[in-house]
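Re: beginner question about structure tokens

> Can someone show what the tokenized structure looks like for a real chain? I only ever see the sequence side.

Sure, here's an example I had lying around. Input first:
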Amino acid sequence: MVPVPKGARTRESILRVAVNLASVEGLQGLTIGRLADELKMSKSGLFAHFGSKEDLQLATVEMARRIAELPTMTSLLIKEAVNQSVDNMGFYNALNACFTLHELNHSHWAWVNEDRFPVAKEDSGIPNWKEAPPIVGAVKDKVRADS
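And the corresponding structure tokens:
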């Protein structure tokens, strides 16, 4: 494994705080000065990593995109719960439990949608399943197989 240079680690740490700050205050609220105050750093220290407010904002958006591509803790917990269910209950019972959760999800969307349609819709912020990227297979010791 190649060691990551200290400057790159510092930049990534700064960007994680910047993403959190921008998620609360918006991108326009993210300034070198505001971030310097949050990090207890000097403005010149931040300018060494980002030459301008615009560069900081662009890097923050890119970091947010990278974070969004990672599997959520929820999906990782679901995977673990399914695996434990299979181990504890056997395949048939675990499959029935999963199907019950699937039906519960349909009930949720039927309650949320005004027309009582039991499926998530794009206007609820859910991507169209027909345009979804392919499922990425799991690879041991990697967060994502395609990374």
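Each token stands for a local structural state, so reading them left to right follows the chain. Residues 73-131 form one domain.
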